[in-house]
Amino acid sequence: MMRAVWLALLLSIGVCAQAGSEVPATIRMASDVWVDRINPDGTGLSWDVLRKVFEPAGVELQMQIVPYTRSIGLVKRGEADAWVASYQNEVSGGVVYPTWHYDSDLISALSLTSKPEPDQAELRRSRLVWMRGYEYQRYIPGLSHYNELQRRSGILSMLDQGHADYYIDARPEVEQVLAGAEEPGKYRVTDLLRLPLYIGFSDTPRGRALAKLYDQRMAQLVEQGELRQVFERWGEHYPFE
């Protein structure tokens, strides 16, 4: 009888160990810098959300700060498990998108005040710029006149000299660009739309296991209301109403 009990116990331990081994003990995350969401020192709203998702489940976050397009490349090559701040189905092939978003971006346009306020028709006929890899043409229908930039440092000059009509980006990044203006009153910021933000996971056994865990944990945290305080602490829109 005792032998049967011990055998059952050992089998149970083996099954638990096998189940636990399906989820890695670490998640290698790559991300660009996003104002007060992904700060280089490991602070920010996004890091706080992701720690609440993974760390109570025994998964340690390992963070790597790289340019956005490089973060995608690392994931597609399996050199990172996930990247931060993707729009839904933005990238195809070699990546897995979870069901749950973790945040949202308020997308805005920066222009000279002499330009018309940018409705959809105005955007279609205007010259637009945004950062490389952001793919806003996927989410704002009809855009065809746009260029992708490697850096934000020359955006105000492009607007001033008439090389572009509108710069499109998430609102914090637009405000960061505007903060460098000598005459900020020359410019206008117009909010366009809000887009959910996702984690893009590598299409590998590690990535798929982490994506499954992420969805399970996000469902629990949202149902229990545990993320609301994080967004309130950072003064940001709560994206799960």
TrEMBL record:
Transmembrane segments: none annotated. It comes from Phytopseudomonas argentinensis. It comes from the Bacteria. Belongs to the bacterial solute-binding protein 3 family. Residues 1-19 form the signal peptide. The lineage of its organism: Bacteria, Pseudomonadati, Pseudomonadota, Gammaproteobacteria, Pseudomonadales. This is Amino acid ABC transporter substrate-binding protein, PAAT family. Keywords: Signal. PANTHER family: AMINO ACID ABC TRANSPORTER SUBSTRATE-BINDING PAAT FAMILY PROTEIN, MEMBRANE-BOUND LYTIC MUREIN TRANSGLYCOSYLASE F.
